[in-house]
Design a protein that fits this description.
The chain is globular, with a radius of gyration of 21 Å. It starts with a strand and ends with a helix. The chain contains nine helices and 16 strands. The relative contact order is 0.16. The chain has two domains: 250 residues, Aspartate Aminotransferase, domain 2 (3-Layer(aba) Sandwich); 100 residues, Aspartate Aminotransferase, domain 1, CATH 3.90.1150. By secondary structure, it is an alpha/beta fold. The longest helix is centred in the C-terminal third of the chain and has 22 residues. Strands 2-12-11-10-7-3-4 form a seven-stranded mixed β-sheet. Strands 13-14-16 form a three-stranded antiparallel β-sheet, with helices on one face. Strands 1-15 form a two-stranded parallel ribbon. Bound molecules: pyridoxal-5'-phosphate. The site of pyridoxal-5'-phosphate has 12 residues, from helix 3.
Length: 368
């Protein structure tokens, strides 16, 4: 058996997908070609690409008035591409950002270079719960407190802060387009496209290989990119060319397409969401009854995907070394938060989470 891999990203793939890709590496479906060797305009790759888009649309129930773009550069490239493509929606090049963790803070900072960017709300200040300082980015600013300017082109938020382990999806109905970084919880739960105008994601958490970037955008927002926006990153041109303006990341699209087919076989997003709820509950229930480990995030916004936790004694190095011996990989927390982080994306079965809890129990018994 392979070890359980808790990496935050690039992260665990469904094993069935890796096996299919391995089996098809030299000869895709009798074509005599590896997917790596196919023209992106040939009929074989067109089939792969079209099925990937259709499966993505079916999984997320993407309405027809939205375009699906397969782009490159990762979610951080979008920190520049979102303003370059969308600030022109209204005069004044204004946008408002909700900062709820490291990733949305990066988005906010990079956007400054392109227009009049303001903070709508921030959870960077720390909260004190039961007399204990929980640290910054451990809660989510309630939408009723957001300061959104009526003449802003869009509002930017992040639905799952991968580093802090804070997840929020209860979006308000805004008059202004809501742009959501869904990099680390896409396909783990539904997206409400009556409230979300743009959802974008780097693929390497829940959808496929690093580098591939998914952008799902309402079509009426296309066509206002700045003159400075590179053609290959212009949403409207990418949409008009079916994401083939330049050579797309063909193998990454193929692998993401296999992930989409796997998700569909699991029963789709509704079924995966139920599995994710059950998985997260196993770990949070254990953390909450323990006095040896703790998670600092306000319970109502705890992430189902990324669960940071701290040990009450400085034994992180021993924990990580023994975890690796027990076949539990990549549990080290992000340096800004410290401690551990278990990322339990769609591809992690509940058995992996149970194995982690069993290990944590045994570690506490040995060292607590
Ligand atoms: C990983 C991540 C990013 C950065 O993705 P890159 O592909 O490295 O640019 C941005 N936002 C969130 C929420 C992430 O989890």
């Amino acid at each position: 058996m392979r070890p359980w891999n808790f990496s935050a990203g690039p992260s665990k793939f469904p094993e069935a997908v890796l096996k299919t890709a391995a089996a098809e590496m030299l000869d895709w479906h009798g074509s005599g070609m590896s997917v790596l060797e196919m023209s992106h305009r040939g009929k074989e790759f067109m089939q792969i690409r079209n099925e990937a888009e259709q499966d993505l649309r079916d999984l997320l129930q993407v309405p027809d008035e939205f375009a699906v773009l397969f782009m490159q550069g990762g979610a951080q490239a979008q920190n520049a591409l979102i303003p370059l493509n969308l600030l022109g929606l209204k005069p004044g090049a204004k946008a408002d950002y909700v900062v709820s963790g490291s990733w949305s803070k990066k988005s906010f900072q990079e956007a400054q270079r392109f227009g009049d960017i303001q903070l709508a709300a921030s959870s960077e200040s720390s909260t004190v719960i039961q007399g204990k300082d929980q640290g910054s980015f451990t809660w989510f600013p309630d939408p009723s407190t957001w300061q959104v300017r009526p003449d802003s082109s869009y509002v930017h938020v992040c639905s799952n802060e991968t580093i802090g382990g804070v997840e929020f999806n209860n979006w308000p109905q805004l008059d202004i387009p809501l742009v959501v970084d869904v990099s680390s919880n896409i396909f783990s739960r539904p997206i409400d496209f009556t409230k979300v105008a743009v959802a974008y994601a780097g693929a390497q958490k829940n959808a496929g290989p690093a580098g591939l970037t998914l952008v799902i955008i309402r079509k009426d927002l296309l066509g206002v990119a700045s003159e400075q926006c590179p053609n290959t990153f212009n949403f409207d041109l990418v949409a008009k060319n079916d994401s083939m303006l330049n050579t797309p990341p063909t193998y990454a699209i193929y692998l993401a397409g296999l992930v989409f087919k796997w998700l569909t076989q699991q029963g789709g997003v509704a079924a995966i969401e139920q599995a994710n709820i059950a998985k997260a509950k196993v770990l949070y229930d254990y953390l909450d009854q323990s006095s040896f480990y703790r998670n600092a995030v306000e319970p109502s916004v705890r992430s189902r995907m990324n669960i940071p936790f701290l040990l009450n004694q400085p034994q992180d190095a021993a924990f990580l070394a023994e975890a690796e011996q027990a076949g539990l990989l990549q549990l080290k927390g992000h340096k800004s938060v410290g401690g551990m982080r278990a990322s339990i994306y769609n591809a992690m079965p509940i058995e992996g989470v149970q194995a982690l809890v069993d290990f944590m129990q045994a570690f506490e018994a040995r060292h607590g």
